[in-house]
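Hi V.,

You were right to ask for the full record rather than a summary. Here it is.
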Amino acid sequence: MALTTRRRALTTLGAALAGAVALPAGTALASEGGRGPRPLWRAHAHNDYEHPRPLLDALDHRFGSVEADIYLVEGQLLVAHDPEDLDPSRTLESLYLAPLAARVRAHHGRVYRRDRRALQLLVDIKTEGAATYLELDRQLRRYGHLFTSYAHGRVLPGAVTAVVSGDRAARAPMEAQRTRRAFYDGRLADLGTSAPASFVPLISDNWTLNFTWQGVGAFPDAERRRLRSIVGTAHARGQRVRFWATPDIAGPARDAVWTELVAAGVDHLNTDDLAGLEAFLDAHRDA
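Predicted structure:
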């Protein structure tokens, strides 16, 4: 509870400072020079919007994936973790879509100037999924040039790939579309089913519901085999793997879990600690 309160305080302070100096959307461009360390595509900013500078802090730390929770409120997509934190000024468009568009425009079609791979924008729906997705789809179409799209059986790469998570009612309207600018975040139950990677490119699940190990002591052999089987099955189908609820307090236990995830080929490591994961991946020469 104390950590959450501190995060909210930092977010409020960051927003206040940003408002005081009236930073334009183009500020997103300042986080990367012409040369520098390569992006960390494995790094996923969990609850990215709780940092003082949503999106921008993650880009400064070279993250390859960011997460935004959204609520549909009177036709607007507002970004927050809990309903009591909703603020009409903190929209998906103002915090993510417009800054990303400005950055990609300045970088000639890329989020990171020296790498063509797509940034993942994981959108976690907190209100009823079908209605919220339809509004999300409308907004993504306004930025159609920015996003990886699916059209009549083909995936067309873009600078940003939107993946829809959260309320599962979003799945039906997405599956019904012949063209879309978002993809679906599957669960382990989707692994090995008929759902193709062109619809479910990402398999995510709760670590604590599938593994007992929390980084203390040896990783049980059976659990290590299960983890590697999950990753192998997903990769064989062109899907990526992410777990949430992994240990995220700095120390040996977190490092031990991250080390096993990297060794198994897990594609995204969840964290609220941007600098901590950046340092870990740099030390492991990971991308």
